[in-house]
Amino acid sequence: MFYFRKYGVQVSTVNCNKYDYKDANSADLVVSVGGDGTFLSAALRITDKYKPIIGINSNPDTSQGSLCLPRHWHTNIPLIVDRLMKGDFKRTYRQRIRLISSTPSSELKSLDDVTPLIFEPHTPHSRHSDETAQSKAPVQSPVHLLPFRSLNDVFVSACMTSRVSRYEVSIDDGEPMTQKSSGFLVSTGTGSSSWHRSLHQIDENLVARILSLASDNNLSMASSHFELAALIAERYNSSLLFPPDSQYMAFSVRELIANHVFKFGSPRGFARK
User: Fold this and answer.
1) Is a pLDDT exceeding 80 seen at residue 175?
2) What letter would DSSP give residue 48?
3) Which pTM was predicted?
């Protein structure tokens, strides 16, 4: 960061593994050097929504760097600094997700430090636990705003991904509904080009199969299923993206279990909270 010092700017270089909230809070500008993962980690610890961050893709040959400056900029660092100092740039505002937990952030554990408890579904211990949980009256727990902000998405599930998750979900202050699935994904507009799109996108082979089945029901179809399928797939996949500054979040229920006990509307949609 020698080029910033030429302008009399105080610079602090921090290894991404040691970067923390105090580093983000003390900076007027955060510059991540790496790929998208480095950018997301840097943004996660910025709590001031007006604090700028820019990403420089350090190795475009091995990293997509969708959140970073265009690929050619990694060899033009002096020009990047010059334009920043002269105000010759445009900002992109990106919405992020705040998380509220009943557990204080100081007591939360990393998944790397968690050993899941495994109970057989028909053991007395398991039945006793279920009965005890059902007999207890609901207790209003205090809530804590966690210090980090998610730029891409938040995924909620049991820590053992092979197990079905059971939880309550409320969309836009609606009535809470009990749900079972393999997980619940909440995405921002920035994240809509990542996991959200991968989860929902369809390919032309699937569309062709659907059109073929529809054709069997004597519906009017185009002469070339595959040509029409490619167009429909492209339009559908493009529609999954939404602006980074959108006030809405996209939610996705992964592998929803729906029956007479667990009822839920659409497994995907948009919400403000």
Assistant:
1) yes
2) -
3) 0.74
